[in-house]
Design brief:
It contains 2 helices and 11 strands, in the order ααβββββββββββ. With 221 residues, it is of the alpha/beta class. The protein has a single domain, classed as Aromatic compound dioxygenase (Protocatechuate 3,4-Dioxygenase, subunit A, Sandwich), CATH 2.60.130. Strands 1, 2, 5, 9, 10 and 11 form a 6-stranded mixed sheet that branches. Strand 6 and strand 7 form a beta hairpin. Helix 1 crosses helix 2. It is globular and about 50 Å long.
Length: 221
């Protein structure tokens, strides 16, 4: 079971509950409104379940689920539109261990460098400004728009986007970072899938809006 469910009527399916919880968490909480009591309860249970599995150790250099905002939906705008850099759009589906069943309410955390290969500057968070959270919808889908990051300065490390996944059943863990086909710094080692179940090296193509787009599906292990 994905989370502690309130008692449902015989006419209410588990799928409908998961959909309601997913939609509810993507909306601001409206405390004090009786008509929203079910939604608030679902949101609270789901949020607490996710936070229980977030890594809170401040020494963890790659974690981010602990900072999930109060409002989380299946889509995120990580880099505002005026931000310098080539825009990219990533979408995908999170699947269960069988690699076929969509997994609703998985929390995805993503972060990356700026166009100079830098994360945080000055008093910014150590992961920088380009970080975001997504909660998969009832079909396991998520998406985000941002800019194409750069490789670290004076390095031979391929440009990449870090990602972690957290569920109410699974502790926050990293998966293979998104890489981009054609990057001269991609090595044979990085072509071996370690965590995430699907190829993380994306071939980007421009969509009808001229934005470079790619698909990063994820399998929970």
């Amino acid at each position: 079971m994905m989370l502690d469910e309130p008692k449902l009527s015989d006419q209410t399916s588990r799928r409908e509950f998961v959909r309601a919880a997913s939609i509810a968490l993507s909306l601001p909480l409206l405390f004090g409104c009786r008509s929203d009591m079910f939604a608030q309860g679902a949101v609270h249970d789901l949020r607490q379940g996710l936070l229980r599995n977030a890594i809170i150790d401040p020494s963890c250099s790659w974690c981010g689920a602990r900072d999930m905002p109060a409002t989380v939906g299946p889509a995120a705008l990580i880099a505002p539109k005026p931000e310098a850099g080539e825009r990219i759009a990533i979408r995908g589906t999170v699947y269960g261990k069988d690699g076929k069943t969509p997994y609703a309410n998985a929390l995805i955390y993503a972060y990356h460098t700026d166009i100079h290969g830098i994360y945080g500057r000055g008093n910014e968070h150590k992961h920088g400004r380009f970080r975001g959270w997504m909660l998969t919808d009832a079909n396991g889908q998520y998406s985000f728009e941002t800019i194409l990051p750069a490789s670290y300065p004076n390095s031979t490390i391929a440009k990449h986007i870090h990602m972690t996944v957290t569920t109410v059943e699974r502790k926050e863990d990293w998966i293979d970072s998104i890489l981009f086909e054609g990057d001269r710094f991609i090595t044979a080692r990085e072509r071996v899938i370690t965590k995430g179940g699907f190829n993380p090296i994306l071939s980007l193509a421009k969509d009808r809006n001229g934005v470079l787009s790619g698909v990063r599906d994820i399998m929970l292990t």
